[in-house]
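> example.struct
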């Protein structure tokens, strides 16, 4: 599990690094432009890290499934080689989706130069393309189904098996401990998939200003919350926070 948490932390840092520096430049320096090459690179790395995280969350759900349903065989099934292969698969999927979206989108002519967004969002880039973009919209939806719905179904299946196993446990304490083990991952999945699916599974005609808020959530807010969500499960971290809170109360008194 800690191996996948390391990878998740790495992806979150890289994911933020794709979007946040340009946002800060726009806010602090006042520049609001980006080159075509810069936009293409931003789109590629955005999809690369985003899709990799989707599949990594699915791999983490499989890890929890093995840990709860087959605890005695966990170290045999989830050995170092399997973990590395699953992680490599997430990066391969991210690379494939990033290349497909970037090459197809930027091989077409653009009729506009202004993107009404804080980063190179593919849904809004499609509005700038010349001619009929229906085939490109279908491509976005198909890839979104593969990259978002596919891993999400794997997560749902894993948790159906996990819940079924937990309900069969005779001890209430064991059930609570098992649910507590999965709580952080479930919260991260809900935040990430909820906002991402609301953006990429909607048709372009439904795209509105409110989707910018959803984009901000899964590109900036969720990666920032992930370390906090997982850290609060650690007893040492919670103990340090309680100690810090007591010190603050003493100072204010």
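> example.seq
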């Amino acid at each position: 599990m800690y191996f996948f948490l390391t990878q998740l932390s790495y992806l979150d840092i890289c994911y933020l690094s794709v979007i946040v520096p340009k946002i800060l430049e726009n806010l602090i320096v006042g520049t609001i432009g980006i080159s075509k090459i810069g936009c293409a690179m931003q789109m590629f790395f955005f999809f690369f890290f985003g899709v990799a995280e989707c599949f990594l969350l699915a791999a983490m759900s499989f890890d929890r499934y093995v840990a709860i349903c087959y605890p005695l065989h966990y170290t045999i099934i989830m050995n170092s080689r399997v973990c590395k292969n699953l992680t490599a698969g997430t990066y391969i999927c991210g690379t494939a989706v990033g290349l497909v979206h970037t090459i197809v989108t930027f091989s077409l002519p653009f009729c506009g130069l202004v993107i009404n967004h804080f980063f190179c969002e593919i849904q809004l880039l499609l509005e700038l393309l010349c001619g009929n973009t229906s085939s490109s919209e279908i491509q976005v939806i198909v890839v979104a189904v593969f990259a978002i719905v596919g891993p999400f179904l794997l997560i749902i299946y894993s948790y159906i098996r996990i819940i079924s196993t937990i309900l069969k446990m005779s001890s209430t304490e064991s059930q609570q401990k098992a649910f507590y083990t999965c709580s952080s991952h479930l919260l991260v999945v809900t935040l990430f998939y909820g906002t991402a699916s609301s953006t990429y599974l909607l048709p372009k005609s439904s795209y509105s200003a409110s989707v910018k808020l959803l984009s901000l959530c899964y590109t900036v807010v969720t990666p920032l919350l992930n370390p906090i969500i997982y850290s609060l499960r650690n007893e040492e971290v919670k103990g340090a926070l309680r100690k810090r809170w007591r010190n603050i109360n003493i100072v204010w008194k």
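> remarks
Residues 231 and 240 are 11 Å apart (CA to CA).
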